[in-house]
Write a structure and sequence with these properties.
The complex is a heterotrimer of chains A (258), B (284) and C (284). With 258 residues, chain A is an alpha/beta fold. Chain A has 2 domains: 69 residues, no CATH class; 174 residues, Rossmann fold (3-Layer(aba) Sandwich). Chain A has 10 helices and 6 strands. In chain A, strands 3-2-1-4-5-6 form a 6-stranded parallel sheet, with helices on both faces. In chain B, helix 2 packs antiparallel against helix 11, helix 4 packs across helix 5 and helix 6 packs parallel to helix 8. Chain B is elongated. Chain C has 284 residues and is of the alpha+beta class. Chain C contains 7 helices and 6 strands; from the N terminus they run H-E-E-E-E-E-E-H-H-H-H-H-H. Chain C has a 6-stranded antiparallel sheet, with no helix packed on it. In chain C, a hairpin with a 2-residue loop joins strand 2 and strand 3. In chain C, helix 5 packs across helix 7. The radius of gyration of chain C is 30 Å and the shape is extended. The chains are: A alpha/beta (258), B alpha/beta (284), C alpha+beta (284). Chains A and C meet through helix 1, helix 3, helix 4, strand 3 and helix 5 of A and helix 2, helix 4 and helix 7 of C.
């Protein structure tokens, strides 16, 4: 499909409307509830532990390009980690294989240290483009873990087969490891080798959860409304197909191709 | 009980050594194992069996050394099936790796040398080579293959009737019976842009780890079949050669180290749990 | 404030183009004609519209979409049409015509970032050498390797000569086998990770381990051998199929729906610069 057909157009407009509507109402009411996500709760704990031990931490924003939704969500988490680290006077090392991520991450971390009143702690050498491919980056990051004796590792974003190449060496250093990815088939590896894992969509909710900004919370509520619509369509589609056969009015209305 | 509790902290190097031995042993000792044929493999086999005369199969062989352990066997068995039944096929490699066509050539050369010496390039198969452009390239192939490829990988023009008689009856998607895409993680674009638009059946050959995201397409009928990792290749070989002794494809060879590797992991997990429970009982 | 507003404006405009390109129909709706092709000439297309013949002149701004049996439209050149095709034709809305240049612009912009990446690397390694940090000689090797890699890269696509040799050595004989080796490390890591992590500490953990064992054993011949005497629904390969087809597909679909809605939300927040707490709420 190169262009939206009528049904997709309606769905996009409807979902966007719901999300934006909830964002703006949440901004006015300044409230919203979000369920507990254990992996994200532990981030502050991990930063605190690294600070107590006087060791730096590593933030790895995945192997996706900067426009990838997972990478964007990961950079949101990096903002939080950098702010906390700056408040506690600790060091964050960012490693990446995506060159465009370097200036963006540099801005985020620099801003966090400046706002915490510790600009002298920011070192641009800590934002490291280590290799051009995921597997070489994993080896290089493992090397940084050994050399810098890091105490906390955060892996957020889009991951491919290199996930385990990062987390297993990391596990051996004894550091506390927290991971989050929207790549379904990498989740088992993270669960096996990290202390906490944030799964799938929870990654997109991470910045909302960590910052408790009304805008982000509103966006989450809007997403839930959109998901209720998706669920309703699935249930109606399944029911009508079961009862009326595959060529019923509802299926034609939704316009599924073969 | 003390020694049992110690099972939960076996030095990782012992496990590494066990994996190494389990994976290397079958290369030293010649073993063949029977396999269960899963529905996704059987569906692909049966679909290819029903290929009508005059149609061709498009094999998107977009893999290289990185995933050859799984993908080599997956193209090998399907090529053998096609060569045996004399179903003509066209090889392309869309987007993922420019080395794909070379690896496909290696697989076919070996098959032709060992099993089908009378099959000829240009008549039974054509290798069009690598092309960039993901779904745009797929659509161009579907609309008019000559818009995407002027020459094959050996430099013959697609209109060269002397060297490529096969290509003289292939114009667009209507001449293609099935698209079989083999790589570590096949491009899902084949489904919306080709199956969704033209209704052409699609099949995948993918790495075992990636397969979990593709099963839903089998359920919805958007994929007609799928070969999953080494297992898929071994199963297809079993369908091609009902007698275990006749099987000698890469899939049949590699399923053995995979089986032993899985066993080592299972045994390690069980030992770890024995140690865990022993330690718990000791603590009371 | 100016920088922030500028970023928000550029982000909005870039996003707006892609959004409009997707939702606006490719031809102007009220000037688009739908019908069956009667004849095609280089100057015009004759369509049968509601029982009446209508001539449509072929102009550079004309876009033609052919309806496939699946109901999906396929963009075609007028020359590719055949009598009997069902088509819709009309003047272009231009948005899609600019897609390739706009994409290329972003690719060029992205490639510039490689320079930044290299600068970042060079800064780290020159710092290592200047300050004689531990293992600083590794950084000297880095600069030598970058130099060597650039020279070898010049031989890409060369027909012969020492540059091609250098390219082959660096990319085919060094980089490729090293990548495969790194890939194979996964087997070892996977074994130790599962040994360490799979402890039956709770009911959920027991369930997870049972399904892992069923799938692992079901994928290999040993699973078949262990349970071949049992009724078919108790055989490990059959149970593994159930886990993969039903339980796994349900989970994947559920996750995908949630993730896609989440992606729309993240996309909207970035497009409209509503993202708070991360980048855009404060002066950079």
């Amino acid at each position: 499909m190169e262009h939206a057909n009528l049904q997709i157009f309606i769905a996009i407009v409807l979902f966007s409307f719901l999300i934006l509507w909830k964002i703006f109402t949440a901004r006015r009411s300044k409230g919203g509830f979000i369920r507990r996500i254990p992996g994200l709760n532990e981030i502050d704990e991990a930063i605190g532990r690294a600070t107590e031990m006087g060791r730096p931490m590593i933030f790895h924003p995945g192997v996706g390009e900067v426009q990838n939704v997972g990478t964007l969500a990961a950079l949101g988490v990096l903002g939080h980690v950098a702010r906390k680290a700056a408040q506690m006077g600790s060091r964050v090392i960012v490693t990446t294989a995506i060159p465009v991520v370097v200036p963006v991450a540099e801005d985020i971390v620099k801003q966090a240290y400046t706002q915490a009143g510790r600009p002298e702690l920011f070192n641009s050498e800590d934002i490291r483009f280590l290799a051009a491919s995921g597997d070489q980056l994993a080896l290089a990051t493992a090397n940084v873990m050994e050399q810098e004796k890091t105490a906390a590792h955060f892996f957020f974003g889009m991951y491919d087969y290199t996930s385990l190449l990062l987390t297993e060496p990391g596990q051996r250093t004894g550091a506390i490891q927290i991971a989050g990815t929207d790549q379904y088939f990498q989740v088992p590896f993270f669960i096996a080798s990290c202390d906490y894992t944030v799964i799938g969509e929870e990654l997109y909710a991470a910045s909302a959860y960590l910052t408790r900004e009304p805008t982000m919370l509103g966006s989450l509520i809007g997403q839930d409304y959109a998901k209720i619509i998706v669920l309703a369509v699935i249930v109606l589609g399944a029911l009508s197909t079961t009862l009326l056969g595959s060529q019923n009015f509802f299926v034609q209305l939704i316009g599924v191709y073969r | 009980m003390e020694w049992l509790a110690r099972l939960q902290s076996i030095d990782r190097r012992w496990i590494y050594a066990a994996i190494w031995v389990a994976c290397a042993l079958p290369f030293v000792v010649n073993i063949k194992l029977p396999v269960y044929v899963s529905p996704e493999t059987r569906r692909l086999y049966e679909f290819i069996e029903k290929c009508p005369p005059g149609k061709v199969i498009l094999v998107d062989s977009a893999w290289d050394a990185g995933s050859q352990g799984e993908n080599w066997g997956q193209v090998e068995v399907v090529f053998e099936h096609l060569l045996r039944k004399r179903i003509p096929f066209i090889i392309t490699s869309v987007e993922i790796t420019p080395l794909g066509p070379q690896f496909a050539d290696q697989v076919i050369e070996r098959l032709v040398r060992e099993k089908f010496p009378d099959r000829k390039y240009g008549v039974d198969w054509v290798n069009l080579g690598y092309t960039k452009g993901s779904w745009q390239a797929m659509q161009q192939i579907a609309k008019d293959i000559r818009q995407q490829y002027k020459k094959d990988s050996r430099g013959y023009s697609l209109d060269d009737a002397e060297h490529l008689p096969l290509m003289q009856r292939v114009r667009n998607i209507e001449d293609i019976y099935l698209i079989y895409s083999v790589t570590y993680s096949p491009l899902e674009d084949w489904i919306p842009f080709i199956h969704g638009v033209y209704g052409t059946p699609i099949a995948f050959g993918c790495a075992g780890i990636q397969s979990t995201t593709y099963y839903r397409y089998l359920l919805s009928g958007q994929l007609v079949g799928m070969l999953v990792g080494v297992r898929g290749a071994a199963e297809y070989d079993a369908l091609l050669h009902p007698n275990l002794r006749d099987r000698n494809s890469m899939g049949t060879k590699l399923i053995v180290p995979q089986a032993f590797g899985h066993l080592v992991i299972i045994v390690a997990v069980i030992l770890g749990n024995i140690g865990y429970f022993a330690a718990r009982r000791r603590k009371g | 404030m100016t920088k922030r507003r500028f970023i928000a404006l550029v982000t909005f405009l870039a996003g707006l183009y892609y959004f409009l390109e997707f939702v606006v129909p490719p031809t102007i709706p009220w000037r688009t004609v739908r019908g069956e092709v009667v004849s095609v000439s280089p100057q015009s297309i004759t369509l049968l519209v509601n029982g009446q013949q209508q001539q449509i002149p072929v102009e550079p701004t004309l876009k033609v979409y052919r309806e496939r049996p699946t109901g999906a439209p396929e963009s075609v050149e007028p020359a590719q049409l055949r009598p009997g095709d069902r088509v819709s034709a009309g003047p272009t809305t231009y948005l899609s015509d600019w897609l390739t240049p706009v994409n290329n612009f972003f690719i060029v912009l992205g490639s510039m970032a490689w320079g930044m990446g290299l600068i970042s690397l060079a800064m780290v390694h020159s710092g290592n050498i200047r300050r004689r940090r531990p293992e600083w000689y590794g950084s000297v090797v880095f600069f030598l390797a970058v130099g060597g890699g650039i020279v070898a890269g010049l031989g890409y696509g060369a027909e012969g000569g020492w540059l091609k040799e250098a390219n082959d050595v660096v990319f085919n004989y060094l980089l490729r086998p090293m990548s495969s080796t790194v890939f194979s490390l996964l087997a070892f890591h996977m074994a130790t990770a599962s040994y360490r992590a799979f402890r039956v500490k709770s009911g959920e953990a027991a369930l997870m381990m049972t399904s892992a064992f069923v799938v692992m054993l079901g994928q290999i011949p040993i699973g078949l051998w262990l349970t071949h005497g049992l009724p078919s629904f108790l055989q490990l390969p059959v149970m593994a199929q159930w886990v993969l087809y039903i339980a796994n597909s349900a989970a994947v679909r559920g996750m995908w729906f949630g993730m896609m809605v989440g992606a729309i939300a993240v996309g909207l927040r970035f497009w409209l610069s509503l993202e708070r707490g991360a980048f855009f709420d404060r002066e950079l």
